[in-house]
Specification:
With 106 residues, the chain is mainly α. It has six helices and no strands. Keywords: Membrane, Transmembrane, Transmembrane helix.
Length: 106
């Protein structure tokens, strides 16, 4: 598809009135202040830990440590002891109960 010379001239002439874009006043100063503001220890630490490889490594280390702890624990199941007693005094015969009964009777 060929264009005529007048079409090409019209297109080129449409660019004559365009001026370059100007930045707002003090734009460079604002950008540099923002860059310096975010360049502290905590922001760099978060940026480092937010990387997928580092986050996956930390998470997998925690999961492996938990699995290792559960497998190698010396947990022994204890049988629940049942107390067969007919009177409350047989169940509660300890020092605290005796002191509580003694205080009420005085």
């Amino acid at each position: 598809m060929k264009r005529s010379n007048t079409e090409i001239e019209d297109i080129l002439n449409s660019l004559d009135g365009i001026s370059p874009a100007n930045a707002r006043p003090f734009m460079h100063t604002r950008v540099m202040a923002k860059i310096k503001e975010e360049n502290n220890f905590w922001s760099r630490s978060v940026q480092f830990l937010a990387k997928p490889v580092i986050a996956f490594t930390c998470l997998s280390t925690i999961v492996i440590a938990n699995i290792y702890t559960v497998i190698n624990s010396d947990y022994e199941e204890q049988e629940a002891s049942t107390v067969a007693s007919n009177s409350i005094s047989d169940v509660l015969q300890n020092d605290n109960y005796i002191l509580a009964v003694a205080d009420v009777n005085q």
